[in-house]
Amino acid sequence: MNVAIIGASGYTGLELIKLLLTHPKFTITYIANSTGDINVQDLHPCLKDVLNIEVSKANANDVAAKADLAFLALPHKTSMSFAKELLALDVKVVDLSADYRLELDTYEEHYCAHEDKDNIPNSVYGLPEYYKEEISSAKLVANPGCYPTASLLALLPFVDYIEEGTQVFIDAKSGISGAGKKLTELAHFANLNENMMAYNPFKHRHMPEIEEKIKLVKNKEFQINFVPQLIPVTRGMLISVYATLKDEVNVEEILEETYKNNEFVRVRKSAVDIKSTAGTNFCDVFVARNKKALFINSSIDNLLRGASSQAVVNANLMCGFEENEGIPKLAYVP
Ligand SMILES: NC(=O)C1=CN([C@@H]2O[C@H](COP(=O)(O)OP(=O)(O)OC[C@H]3O[C@@H](n4cnc5c(N)ncnc54)[C@H](OP(=O)(O)O)[C@@H]3O)[C@@H](O)[C@H]2O)C=CC1
Ligand SMILES: CC(=O)N[C@@H](CCC(=O)OP(=O)(O)O)C(=O)O
To answer: Catalytic positions (predicted)?
Structure first.
C-alpha cells in the first residue's frame, strides 16, 4: 500500500516517516511540505544515509497519482483544504489536525469557519479502543488530539460511575514537542528549562473535544475542568483526573475489565510515568480510590500515541491490516 505524508517537515511528520519506513505493509511514495525542493536528508539531518527522497511542494493531484492513503500532519485549517481535494480524488485520509474531530458547531466555536462541511459527517474519530469498527470502513479518520487521547482513555471507563453534577478535574502535563516545531516565547529554552507552568486553564480547545466525546460514547454530560501544563521535557504526557464516585466501587476491576482485550492500553498497578510510554503507542493507566474520591492517572507519548503511531494504527485498520502492524512497543528507557 503506497502512502503519502503531507507536513513531513514537522514533528509528527518526522515520526510518521520513521514509523512508515519500518512498516511491513506501507511504502512511502510521496512526502511534502509547504515549499518542496529539498531532500528529506537536508530537512531532517537524522535521516542522513537512511532515506533518500525528494520533498515536494504539497499538491493533491500528485498525491493521488502516487498514493492510496495520505497522512496529513498539517496545522488545522490547512488540513481541511487538502483533505477535501484528496477525498474527491479517492485517496483515503488520516488527518492529524483538529479539522474533522468535532461536530460543526463545536469546531466553529473553538477554531474557525469550516471549509469542508460535507465531509464532517463522513469522518470517524480515530480512538481505536472506542471506534474500531467505524475506523475499519472509514475513508477519513480524524486522529484525536494528544490531550484528549490520554484523558479519554483514562476517564471513559469510569463515566458511568461518577456522580452526576460533580466536578471532574483534569490536570494534564505535556512535553514541549506537543506545540510543534514553530518557535514561541513559551517554548524558549530559558523559559521552559527547569520550569513548569499552566496555560489556557479552563480555556483550552481540547476541553470541548473531551466533553463532546464523553457525550457521544457514553451519552453523559459532564463539566470537564481541563488545565494543561508545560513541563521541561521534549516528549511525554501525564494526565491526572480527579472526580467523585457515586459509590465505593472496585475501580481496579472496572479498569481491567474495560481494557482486557486492548493491546495498546496497559493497566498498571502503581502510578504511571512518561518514560515507560515514550517511543511507544502504549497508553498506561492507573486508578486509585479514597472512599468516593477517584484518581485516574495515564501517560502517553504525545508524538506517538498522541499523534503519529495512533495515525498508523488507524491506517492499519482502514486498510484491513492487523492493528499492531509496525507499531512500536519498546520504550526509550532509560
Ligand atoms: N506535536 C504533537 O504532539 C501533536 C500534534 N498534533 C497535530 O498534528 C498536526 C501537525 O503537528 P506538528 O507536527 O506538531 O506541527 P509542526 O508545526 O511541527 O509541522 C507542521 C507541518 O505542516 C506543514 N505545513 C504548514 N502549512 C502547509 C501548507 N500550506 N502546505 C504544506 N505543508 C504545510 C509544515 O511545513 P513547512 O515546514 O513547509 O512549514 C510542517 O511540515 C497539527 O495539526 C497538530 O495540532 C496532534 C497531536 C499531537
Ligand atoms: C504543548 C502544546 O502546546 N500542546 C498543544 C496541543 C497539541 C495537540 O495535540 O494539538 P492538536 O489539537 O492541534 O492536535 C496545544 O496546547 O495547543
So the answer is: 146
ipTM greater than cut 0.95: yes
pLDDT in tens, 133-148: 999 999 999 999 999 9
Question: Among 11, 94, 174, 196, which residue has the most ligand 2 atoms within 8 Å of its CB, making it the best to mutate?
Answer: 174
Spatial distance between the Cα atoms of 318 and 132, rounded to a whole number of angstroms: 9
98 lines ligand 2 (CB under 6 A): yes
Mean of per-residue pLDDT scores for the chain? 97
pLDDT tens column, 44-66: 999 999 999 999 999 999 999 99
Q: Compute the distance between CA of residue 228 and CA of residue 202 in angstroms, rounded to an integer.
A: 9
Q: CATH 3.40.50.2300: does it fit domain 2-143+305-318? A: no
Is 146 labeled as catalytic in the residue annotation? yes
Give the domain ranges of the chain. Answer: 2-143+305-318, 147-302
Fold of 147-302: Dihydrodipicolinate Reductase; domain 2 (3.30.360)
CB 265 within 8 A of CB 283: yes
